[in-house]
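Troubleshooting log. The previous run stalled partway through. Resubmitting the same two chains, unchanged.
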Amino acid sequence: EVQLVESGGGLVQPGGSLRLSCAASGFTFSSYWMHWVRQAPGKGLVWVSRINSDGSSTSYADSVKGRFTISRDNAKNTLYLQMNSLRAEDTAVYYCAREGMAMGTSYYMDVWGKGTTVTVSS
Amino acid sequence: QSALTQPASVSGSPGQSITISCTGTSSDVGSYNLVSWYQQHPGKAPKLMIYEVSKRPSGVSNRFSGSKSGNTASLTISGLQAEDEADYYCCSYAGSSTFGFGGGTKLTVL
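Second attempt completed without errors. Output:
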């Protein structure tokens, strides 16, 4: 079964750091581009970041650029999101998602995890 | 990176058809046939319903269809069913490996 499982969320103070993980199973992780998408409480989906299949190319939303870093370990089938200088407005459920085509780019997200909750508050 | 514009809510009766619009700009929706749509039930993860403007993934009902004209994409759901009640989000590629989502539309089946 194709599956993505996020972990690492929690309560952190403003200015703090957190690293999210997304464990992939049921497919060849190293063949797919991956994304992080977040959803603040009661709000809509917001794209956060994207990484290519070998980790050599990354992109970010302006709101997190310079503070968040996406990375992956293909040997461990795991995607990461390092979040630094956290702000209250970063409070959200963070989803990892697979881009839809192996060995290429497809610009849509076909598999999603259930999300992990990050709360930034003092 | 601006959010795409969707109506906050739409509603319809069982068996009817509804259309949800998603308006972007010439830098995103208007430039690429790379609009996707996602359904999200409360407390659940999003589910891909339409990709590349009008293509349906395997397993998605053919009651769901997508289209695009200029800077506006649309999702149409025909033969509304109770289980279609959910939030729907559009997403477009915006160039330079970035993406934008719409603000979401709450669909109520009356």
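Takeaways: Residues 102 and 109 of chain B are 21 Å apart (CA to CA). The mean pLDDT of chain B is 96.
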